[in-house]
């Protein structure tokens, strides 16, 4: 079914097609439309699951922990301060190995309070033990929510998944989207029964303290599951491509193969950067774009391979770690450690500050001239 | 009544021995009583506190499903479990029970509890009240009695604030059934839980559960300490069904001095302070026995 819908509707449709059973939530701009949509479906009887608006994001995340521990398929969504309030509970959800999917709609963090997107909220969750997909298009959001459950509920993985979109740029922008048929999703996404769950017929003690080396073993298993998820995610991507024709990968490479200079970034602005690459290619400049779609686990090996022959790399960070710089930058440097490439950081678009095609052309021209690693602000 | 406590006691215990609980621990007795009253169809939610350490990898004393989330979210984790059970159509014969300390209830967890009560979720929330943050080494909570010694309210001043009136607050917040109880009165507690099990909405029970290292009483005197709190009138036992208040035990009104003197945490109290507490207790009891419970300040 082809429709023209915004990113928020896409997330809601993803949850509906995945037949989620529980949606504990709390409203926040620019996410609210997701839960409003599900509330409307719930009122009309089109959504059959449990829908509860709790009294905070912290409680919404806590309820997600509870509902997914019973084995019910669980979905929620949040942004910005809401995500930061949830932060305490996110490592508990992953540590308890409870599968679920959450859509995060990126919005800058306070103070000063702002409504527009940057990635400081989502990237702050990078150590929470959640698999993280950061999307570029509305279609990708919808597909990733559905694929997210397949990865999350895999008995070898059992990790929660974040599907991120950018506030406003995705959340309130309508584009043409293919909503897959229910039959197709049902075939792709059966609901496996969880081995570890809260059930009076099979008592288990969950979320218990572990001391010393036992604690470390738990954490190591979490890390191992994260690394194991590469193979599962790859398989799920391929299966989805076979059913829908839409191909996804850990990295989204655009004209990278023969490029001299490449922009590395995440999020919706990649669409603008893509246009800049096209414009420069028309002028004979060998440039490209590499968008990181899978942020956790971090596809270090793939990144290294993709950029093997590229000498100039411009990392674009729509976020800031005060006192360090862009958050993406050290991760890219780490992946490319030991190579003799020029890698510079460009911090831009904080708080949804407008970014144009010309800005990316400027960045590409700048990195081509650069002789040593540099860190810059574009504003 | 189909429930025979002697028969229930003969069944295998749903919480076994061998935990890390202190000798003379009353909160863990409370769990045993709760499981005797409600049986095996219980999913127990624990908020971080002393009772979290009852199960420590690789050991567990629980023969029922048990989960610990964090300290401030007992009301919300349980709400999520109830959502899941409803979605899976397993909610009819399962009790979701929160067992959280007073710090996790009166203070940091008040928001999630208030949400749970407001939505009238079919959840039994039991606050095991040892009148302090015991697990971190006995700090003051808003359930700590006035003048009591804790590590954050050391003598000679002690705690200057009166305790919150939790059961009343929850009853006004919309809980279908509210009660106070004390581990030293097991039949009263079990009777209240049996009633709670039949309630189709939210339940809040404030269970006084003396703590040996926190109250500075001997391990073999914790039950006695609870009993003296009740008989002196300092911890009234009552229930509030849909805002209807009933006294469940008429205390002997023994002098509060006796109850206070046996607890090391009140050792520093001056004669004036003891007299002041005695006056408050007498005044409050007079009010609640004359059907003026809702006007009483302390209870």
Short description:
The complex is a heterodimer of chains A (379) and B (299). Chain A contains 13 helices and 16 strands. With 379 residues, chain A is of the alpha/beta class.
Topology:
The complex is a heterodimer of chains A (379) and B (299).
Chain A: E1 2-5, H1 7-17, E2 22-25, H2 32-44, E3 50-53, H3 57-69, E4 75-78, H4 80-86, H5 90-95, E5 101-106, H6 120-123, E6 131-134, H7 138-152, E7 161-166, E8 175-178, H8 182-188, E9 205-206, H9 212-244, E10 251-254, E11 261-265, H10 270-282, E12 287-292, E13 294-296, H11 300-306, E14 312-317, H12 328-335, E15 342-347, H13 357-369, E16 375-377
Parallel strand pairs in A: 2-3, 4-5, 5-7, 6-7, 11-12, 11-14, 14-15, 15-16
Antiparallel strand pairs in A: 1-8, 6-13, 10-12
Helix pairs in contact in A: 1-2, 1-7, 3-4, 7-9, 10-13
Chain B: H1 5-10, H2 27-38, E1 42-46, E2 66-68, H3 74-87, E3 95-101, H4 102-107, H5 110-118, E4 123-129, H6 166-173, E5 177-182, H7 186-197, E6 203-208, H8 212-215, H9 222-231, E7 238-241, E8 244-247, H10 256-261, H11 271-289
Parallel strand pairs in B: 1-2, 1-3, 3-4, 4-6, 5-6
Antiparallel strand pairs in B: 5-7, 7-8
Helix pairs in contact in B: 2-7, 3-5
Q: List the total number of helices of chain A.
A: 13
* Strand order, largest beta sheet of chain A: 10-12-11-14-15-16
| Rg calculated over all Cα atoms of chain A | 20 Å
CATH third-tier fold name of chain B: Rossmann fold
> Could you say which structural class the secondary elements and strand pairing of chain B correspond to?
alpha/beta
